[in-house]
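FW: tagging you since you asked about this chain on Friday. Here's the raw sequence from the shared folder, copied in full. Didn't touch anything.
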Amino acid sequence: MTAFNVVRFKVKPGMDEAFLDAHRNIAGSWSGMRHANIIKTGERRYCIIAEWESTEALAAGRPAMIATLDSFRQTLEELGGGLGVTDPVAGPVVLSMK
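HL: got it, structure written out here
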């Protein structure tokens, strides 16, 4: 069953390109990922939305996702509210619409 993960980020001033550069070649290193998009949700705020072959593939991809995060962690600001520098959620598709 297809799964998605979504992660919110807030980038430090002047670090937008470094943040985006860290994601440019993830397709080869995140096995099981079908597709990913990064959207800009506000000033220095981004969200990555990734589609995975299954919840198992998503779980297996977590080490690669964490390694990618570690490569650009210095570009991120705390989100506040005890979240740290990311706000991740993930789960299986329960309804698909066109």
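FW: Residues 12 and 76 are 5 Å apart (CA to CA).
HL: agreed, and The first helix runs from residue 16 to 21.
FW: great, closing this out.
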